[in-house]
Amino acid sequence: MKTIFRSLLAAALLTGTSVASFAQSAPAAPAAADTARLTLDASVVNAVNTQSFYLFRQAVQPLIKQMRDKKVVALGEGTHGSAEFYKLRFWLTRILMEDEGFTQVALENTYADCYRLNEALHSRTVGDLKPLMKKHLLSIWQNRETEEMLNWMHTYNTSHLRKVELRGIDGMFGTTAAEVLQEQLARTTPEITALTEQLVQHTQYHDKVWTNLNDRSIPFKRPEMLANGWAGYEATEKLEKALTGIKLTRRQAPVVAGALKNLHHYFDTFYQPKVNKQESSRDSLMAEMTRFLVRDKGSKVIVWAHDAHVSRRLAVPGDNNGGGTGKFLERMFPGQYFVLGSTTATGTVAATTHRFISPLSPMASYPLEAPVAGSWEASLQGLTPAVFYLNTNQLQAADVRRPHRLVGYGPESGKDSYFPFKLSEAYDALLFVRQTTAATPL
Fold first, then answer.
1. Mean pLDDT, the chain, as a whole number?
2. CA nearest 75: which of 389, 368, 380?
3. 3-state DSSP call for residue 437?
4. What is the pLDDT of residue 34?
5. pLDDT, tens digit (0-9, with 9 covering 90-100), for 96-107
6. Do 25 and 412 meet the contact criterion of CB atoms below 8 Å apart?
7. What pLDDT is attached to residue 18?
8. Does 319 score more than 70 pLDDT?
9. SS3 letters for 229-269?
């Protein structure tokens, strides 16, 4: 599994070693997992009909009933590139929005970049979304399956008073957030204008550093990168203080607050090692952004992110940042967090060979390796329904710690992609699709 962005960066920051020297594979799972054949009572297997949205809606009503009263519902993915995971999560999202009062869907994508796309979803005529998707979404979201959901959201907004919103919970890039602040604060004070200009420069520089990590011929200038990152953090702090006495309109205030939070998270990678002598936790920051999205009374959100993030338990051995985003969200919203994981056994997956995922990372189709013996995936593929979900609290004695596959944005799906899981510790429910296909690039 490709390491998450913070691990690569933190290693460079804290050790001074060149980023290019760091491997992208997470440590192999310990051998202590149970590999005995799994036997499940048929009553825990809930078959799902995926032939049409309407048949699907009927089949998942018991699952929707569990989700409807939660403040945060996370829809996970066992890979970043399976078409069926995008399609079925879209259908679940549509049901929750149409029937259960959810108005926000938040992607594992930079907050301010989703804000740009969301603006388009509220316009009278949206036209072709592809250029905006290619500019503002990581390449894992640049597929026809995601485009279908975004087009549905726009159509919904044109015919309903209650609008639906696209959000982002990540802070991987900063330029768009800085540009949003520059636009929103253009008519304030010379000091604020100067600070937003500085932030645009710092974020443009730093975003380029991240994308250049994919080109081994470009040298990694650590001292320069560190100086720029810290300067960006200081400029963000100064801007926030300068805004204390500025009165913003009701429309400006939430936009500015979100863009500022995006930049705080973006530069946290530099703040934590320098000030607190510790690594920045991307999972805790994504949870904090999720809390920001549901700060208003009655607001609810659907989160789309990798299983490794939405899981309630530590996904990768050696990760000392407190566990997945789901673990933080459970602490923030006790009893108000529901997480559905999803996994597959065979098929193809869209992935990139880039070391650092960006909107420019090319995606291609790769075959999934056969599940390892004794894994959850190997056991579940032997059950009769091709697509089904199960409630993990019904597994009881069958819920032993066994290998569970987590495929990131890279093409690797072999034995090093498995980690020992008791499903009930990670998810409320698990959606299984026996054979999946690679997501379709735009």
1. 91
2. 389
3. coil
4. 59
5. 999 999 999 999
6. yes
7. 39
8. no
9. HHHHHHHHHHHHHHHHHCCCCCCHHHHHHHHHHHHHHHHHH
